[in-house]
Amino acid sequence: MSRLGLLALATGFMVVFSGCQKEDIDVQSESLVIKSSATMTMASGQGTLVLEDTPISGEGFRHFTFQARVKPNGSVDGSGILTHIGGVRNASFDIDCLSVNENHAILSGVITRDNQFPSNEGGLIWFEVFDNGEGANADPDQISVAYLGTNPATYNCANDFDVPSYEILGGNIQVRE
Length: 177
Description:
The protein is mainly beta. The chain is built from one helix and ten strands; from the N terminus they run αββββββββββ. The longest helix is centred in the N-terminal third of the chain and has 16 residues, at 3-18.
């Protein structure tokens, strides 16, 4: 196509689109809720906890990964995996409760799979995390050990047990209120 043809085509598009106006669209549907991810309450992370730094007996490491968010309807959707390094134990869990206060999140849910202790499946899990910022000058993020139990009145995110938390290695935790 010649330069003259491209110029004519471009001019035509300008004429067509200059006649367009912005329409105000009223979206008042109860089923449509739009929330920016920047303001969505959530917690997620992954990293490694050194057992020698905790009161748990044993040596080695535990790797964790988790993610949870509060959906627009107020329910919580999330999951996580706790792996004993060496693959001796893998425990998966669903997260159904999330409480966030600034950089601190408390999470709880139901154990869905435990390859070493299947009797834990259906039991409850509770843990807390701290997002201490980003960059080389930030303090390391922290996680508590995971507490397991069966009493829903105890093992839920509404309870803050003020338990010790430990620095993570090679990972990152994000908490958004």
